[in-house]
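hey so u asked for the seq, here:
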Amino acid sequence: MFRAQLVAALLVVPSAALAQTTNPPYMAQFPTVEKVVKAMEMPDPRESALRKLGALWQLEQVIKQLSGRREFRGLLPDEAKVLGEYQVAEYYIGQAIDSAFPGPYGNAGKVSLNTPYQYMRTDVRFGIEGVELAKVLPVSVLDLFYQSVGNDKARRVAQARADSEATRRAEARRSA
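ran it, structure tokens below
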């Protein structure tokens, strides 16, 4: 009886509400690979592939940053699933473009490695030049990302100050 009621209840719950049951909740706002690929499409196949690779890489970095220490200790299943989908797509897009256009491209040995304007998440210029994540990711998630990066930076600055102060005190004790 309970099982039948549960099934009936699930049938009347809107699919959007089911999508919001990700853990952590913001993962429901991450785009599908198909949406990312479509949003990054360009007339030139090489530039199109580079934009797709860049967007997927940036989304991976956002997930890793938002996961905090879980990035190193083990992601939650929803984080790992989406991250894995992006990584697999990135691999296949890179393989396809390198097969279609073998040889060097730009300053790289192959098309998929041509990322001259790639900045890490700790850099204020984070991302790939020309790739706007706001096209595929809600501003609320981007705000969480930048807030998390800012918090990490503040922790590093505080730790550096504490280390510097400890070193200064140790040197003062030796001098005394």
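Helices lie at 2-12, 15-19, 33-39, 45-67, 70-73, 77-100, 139-175. The beta strands are 118-119, 127-128.
lmk if thats what u needed
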